[in-house]
Design goal:
Shape: elongated
Radius of gyration: 26 Å
Largest sheet: 4 strands, antiparallel
Strand order of the largest sheet: 2-10-7-8
Strand content: 15-25%
Number of helices: 9
Helix content: 25-40%
CATH class of one domain: Alpha Beta
Structural class: alpha+beta
């Protein structure tokens, strides 16, 4: 063991202040993603005096690790001066911040090695618990406080850059969706004179199936009549240590896929699945089970994963309308259509036929092409920022991994 590894018990202590004054404070839950979140618990008739107060720069963790996969729920309060947590949680604090920086300690708790250690050291016949005693016995490197703060500053610089990129991505996404709504819901797309179509006398006709007026010469069709719609494997291939990721509904983000959270399947299963539903760049993936309606626009240059419980819209075959279909699938109309889904009595899901039967307005080609010119630039910027965040996240993980090697 390196000389600067010390037991945490020398630096931390329990805190147990109850809300006896019934202060109106934010009540927070705790997740395995190492973050607090506003609680969704039903508090009717609850005695709030028993809830624990957690101050800024204090920690909270849940000792029960048996039902949380391979992660331990622990977080640092860096947002509120004071907040409340469940009486079942265990708050604690750093005794002397000139010896141990709370943010440095939280960096250690974010390491996957700490999660594995906490699970290994959890004991109990009914529920496995990572006790306060085991927490205090945990050995971590404690370099000089100046070195700790230097590491924290480097970590926060990366984290802040990721947050800024996420804000930009959200703004760009909102901009593209606003343009889509203006053009294809409110029908204020530019007419031949560059003026908003509907408000400048553009001719509208009643469409019975859509139940509203639409621009003249536009029509509504089943989505499957203009693009191929498939789905992933219906089997459950056995996981293998080395192989190809199997992406399911839970792994979809708007412009990224959580490939690190998937399990691998064999090359044989991968090839067999791709015979049914090969994913290409500029395709759209759509979650068909669980949280139905998550949409992912595939922007990977190399596709090395298979899909299950995921709808596959082959927009790569019709790139000229891909962005239009993307934002159609993210529109309010799509949410209403999903609400009409007759399936999902025990678990939300949609069928392939349900997706293929969706009605979509088919504008004139020149209108869609103009939209594609604008949206393509927005999506490209989103893609660049998404890739940048992937690299920054890898750098952040590298920094966390190096904590174990820090010396005085």
């Amino acid at each position: 063991m390196k000389s600067n590894y010390k037991p945490l018990g020398k630096y931390i202590q329990l805190v147990d202040e109850r809300n006896t004054a019934l202060e109106d404070l934010p009540l927070m839950g705790l997740s395995v993603s190492k973050a607090f979140f506003p609680t969704i618990a039903n508090l009717v008739g609850t005695d709030m005096k028993t809830y624990k107060i957690v101050y800024r720069n204090q920690f909270t963790y849940i000792t029960d690790t048996s039902r949380r996969g391979d992660k331990i729920a622990i977080a640092l309060n860096g947002k509120f001066d004071k907040m409340l947590v469940s009486q079942a949680y265990t708050p604690f604090e750093v005794k002397d911040r000139n010896e141990l920086d709370p943010e440095y300690l939280m960096m250690w708790f974010r390491r996957p090695e700490f999660d594995r250690y906490a699970r290994f050291m959890s004991h109990g016949s009914v529920r496995e618990m990572f006790s306060w005693e085991e927490m205090c016995n945990t050995l971590i490197p404690i370099p000089h406080i100046d070195k700790q703060r230097e590491i924290v500053q480097e970590y926060n610089t990366i984290q802040n850059r990721i947050a800024l990129n996420q804000q930009l991505i959200q703004k760009l996404e909102e901009t593209a969706q606003a343009i889509y709504k203006e053009w294809f819901v409110e029908f204020e797309f530019p007419d031949e004179n560059g003026k908003p179509y509907r408000s400048n006398g553009g001719e509208m006709v009643w469409n019975e199936e859509m139940g509203k007026e639409i621009p003249k010469d536009w029509k509504n069709v089943n989505l499957s009549s203009i693009i191929n719609i498939k789905d992933g494997t219906h089997d459950s291939p056995s996981p293998t240590e080395n192989g190809y990721p199997l992406v399911t509904s839970t792994h979809l983000d708007s412009y990224d896929i959580k490939l690190k959270e998937t399990y691998n399947i064999t090359e044989e299963d991968f090839i067999q699945t791709n015979k049914r539903s090969k994913v290409d760049k500029y395709d759209i993936l759509f979650s068909m089970i669980g949280t139905v309606g998550l949409v992912n626009y595939v922007l990977y240059d190399e596709i090395n994963f298979a899909i299950k419980n995921v709808g596959l819209f082959k927009t790569s075959e019709k790139k000229e309308i891909a962005d239009y279909i993307l934002f159609y699938l993210k529109s309010d109309y799509m949410k209403l259509y999903l609400a009409s889904n007759p399936n999902g009595s025990t678990q939300n899901y949609v069928t392939l036929g349900f997706l293929r039967d969706m009605l979509i307005l088919l504008p004139l080609d020149n209108t869609v092409l103009k939209f594609e010119e604008i949206s393509e630039k927005i999506i490209e910027t989103i893609h660049i920022k998404t890739i940048e965040n992937q690299k920054l996240s890898e750098l952040k993980e590298l920094l966390l991994s190096k904590l174990a090697t820090e010396e005085n």
